[in-house]
Specification:
Strand order of the largest sheet: 3-1-2-4-5
Number of domains: 1
Number of helices: 4
Largest sheet: 5 strands, mixed
Distance between the termini: 21 Å
Structural class: alpha+beta
CATH architecture: 2-Layer Sandwich
Order of helices and strands: EHEHEHHEE
Radius of gyration: 17 Å
CATH topology: Tetrahydropterin Synthase, Chain A
Bound molecules: nickel (II) ion
Strand content: 25-35%
Length: 135
């Protein structure tokens, strides 16, 4: 039997989507408002899913306190109220699209999770735009 537990989290962050090797007009053409050279913010909503088997002894799949602490330390403390392009090393040379942010979050969490679990990261950049990354 396999099931998935979820933990929701939230962070606010600023970004700019652009390529350094493109001029402002091409960046604006491709990335639209998200290419504003003065940056802008999003309220990111996160859903972290951990899939595995229930421990018959505890009835838990994973200790949710542990998952909460992991998300706080690896995601919220690293990204909340940050300028992703400027302050978060993972995005120094990586466009902080929701796709790439989800992959970075997945990588950061994956290395702290037991191999017996599968991990999914769903990230909402706006209430209507979101991405699911499962590795
Ligand atoms: Ni944006």
């Amino acid at each position: 039997m396999s099931l998935t537990v979820y933990r929701k989290a939230h962070f606010n962050a600023a970004h700019r989507l652009y390529r350094k090797d493109w001029d402002d007009s091409r960046n604006e053409q491709v990335f639209g408002k998200c290419s504003n050279p003065n940056y802008h913010g999003h309220n990111y909503e996160l859903e972290v899913g951990v899939t595995g088997s229930v421990d018959p002894e505890t009835g838990f799949l994973i200790d949710m306190e542990l998952l909460k602490k992991l998300i706080r330390e690896e995601v919220e403390e690293a990204l909340d109220h940050k300028n992703l392009n400027v302050e978060v090393p993972e995005f120094a040379n990586l466009n902080p699209t929701m796709e790439n942010i989800a992959r970075v979050i997945w990588d950061k969490l994956r290395k702290h999770l037991d191999d017996k679990f599968e991990l999914s990261v769903k990230l909402y950049e706006t209430p209507r735009n979101f991405v699911l990354y499962t590795g």
